Amino acid sequence: MDSESEKEISRRSLLKKIGTGAAIAWAAPVLSSFGAKAYGSPKVPCGCKGGVGEGCSVGGDDCFGQVDCSPIGNFCTCLRTTEDTCFCHQPQSCAGLQLCTASTDCPAGWSCTFSCCAGGPFCVPPCTGGGKYRQRLKGRSTVGVRSGSG
Fold first, then answer.
1. Which residues lie across from 81 on neighbouring strands?
2. CA separation (Å) from 79 to 44, 75, 131, 132, 133?
3. Among candidate residues 85, 120, 115, 83, the one with its CA nearest the CA of residue 100
4. Residue 64 DSSP label
């Protein structure tokens, strides 16, 4: 009878062991990711970290290689400029954007960039930091094609 009682485990003990195992399973990838680069979403307040190929235009793709540079409460991405630098911009609908050949063709503070808009480069505004501004985009935009109302 003693051998049977040694094999028995209380519900509480079982749940503790399951919880410990789950915590270890969750913690392993999280802890091993410290120091790893998150190419999809580094959070740099209104600034692009790294140059072309790292901070923007990742993989040589001006549309799908955009990196998140959003400040809290906003959505912004880094675009490659005609000067071959990265620029943290406020996403815009492609319709009505001003064509350019250099950032000097754009309004003050704006930059001449390559994006998901065909036929560019176009002038785009800088990211507006600190605000709770999120523009609803419809149709083709600097960050791709969006659908929805707004």
1. 113
2. 14, 13, 20, 21, 19
3. 120
4. T
Residue 103: strand, helix, or coil: helix
Question: Given pLDDT bands bounded at 50, 70 and 90, which one contains residue 30?
Answer: very low
H runs (alpha helix) in the chain: 2-7, 11-32
d(CA 101, CA 109): 16
Between residues 28 and 54, the one the model is more confident about: 54
* Residue predicted with more confidence, 17 or 60: 60
| Integer-rounded Cα radius of gyration of the chain | 24
Distances in Å between the Cα of 119 and the Cα atoms of 18, 20, 53, 130, 142 are: 57, 56, 21, 32, 12
Give CA 9 to chain center in angstroms: 47
